[in-house]
Amino acid sequence: MSDASSAKPANPSTDICQRFLFADADVRGEIVRLTRSYTDTVSNHAYPPAVSNLLGEFLAAAVLLGSAIKYDGRLVLQVRGDGELNLIMSECTSEGAIRGIARFDKAPESEDFDVLTGEGLLVITVDSRRSDPYQGIVSLEGGSLAASLQTYFEQSEQLESWFCFAVDEEQACGFLLQQLPGAASADADVREERWQHLQTLAQTLTASEMLALSNEQLLNRLYHQEEVNLFPPRQFHYQCSCSRERTAKALVSIGKEEVDSIVIEQGEVSIACEFCGTDYRFNASEIALLFQDRGDLLH
């Protein structure tokens, strides 16, 4: 590893996730760094800073979870609670597209995780094209998203895991350390000792270091005495899955009578995507054609 520095890299890699492995320990790690994909997500909404920061954590977490769970489709991480937020969710596809949203009735005033989320559940859904959807649920614990994710892996996957997140106005970063099934050592005591040692070093990581250091510098800062293999980065990007066709199908599902009443009252139907803000408009003739096509299909 190259020497770590406290200076911010001149040309840091953006919107990437990189895996790393230890040569003599059954432990793997992932580092995610989101810049434009994060800012594109939050710039579509007038979120208070605390909400933008928490959504950044959710985006980074979705990428980290996608690296830990093999899937072909999309992974959704969400919390519905009774706190200041009604909903906060992030989504990551196997193609590297991410998006997210937070909903609230009144602008949140707190920066505290428990106040923002309230009493709720953390739900992880894997919607795969090749198998039935999978859903994992865990109670919110420990006063942070990181602690709740650690509880999830301990309870559902029986894997020792450690998460850390750091977010500012420009980027959302995440760090995952996770124990693997025994390969480097069959001795349970040795495995646990190595895990505790690597985790203890990881826990010295600060938010400012995560935001300022490159991945190479960060690993050198933590594990300069270890043999670490850093894999090539995988790229991610912001992309909303909305479309005019999907919006049209949603209108048909509402029903002709209700949609016609909107056209009579407003002259057209306007639906804005709550994720990206794209406004889809349908005039009276387009609405008539939608339901005419629907009628042709039924007959």
Count of DSSP-assigned helices:
10
**SSE run:** EEHHEEEHEEHEEHHHEEEHHEEH
CATH class of the largest domain: Alpha Beta
What would CATH call the homologous superfamily of the largest domain? Hsp33 domain
- Helix fraction, binned, reads 25-40%
The CATH topology of the largest domain turns out to be Hsp33 domain
* Rg over alpha carbons: 22 Å
Indicate the low-confidence ranges by residue numbers.
1-12
Largest sheet: 6 strands, antiparallel
Looking at the overall shape, the CATH architecture of the largest domain is 3-Layer(bab) Sandwich
Ends: how far apart? Answer: 67 Å
Number of strands: 14
Q: Residue-averaged pLDDT, rounded?
A: 88
What amount of the residues lies in strands? 25-35%
Overall geometry:
elongated
Task: Tally the structural domains.
Answer: 2
Describe the protein.
With 299 residues, the chain is α+β, with helices and mostly antiparallel strands. The protein folds into two domains: 16-238, Hsp33 domain; 244-298, CBS domain Like, CATH 3.90.1280.10. Helix content is 38%, strand content 28%. Strands 1, 2, 8, 9, 10 and 11 form a six-stranded antiparallel beta sheet that branches. It has a six-stranded mixed beta sheet with strand order 7-6-3-4-5-12, covered by helices on one side. Strands 13-14 form a two-stranded antiparallel sheet. Strand 1 and strand 2 (27-34) form a beta hairpin. The termini are far apart. The model is unreliable at 1-12 (pLDDT under 50).
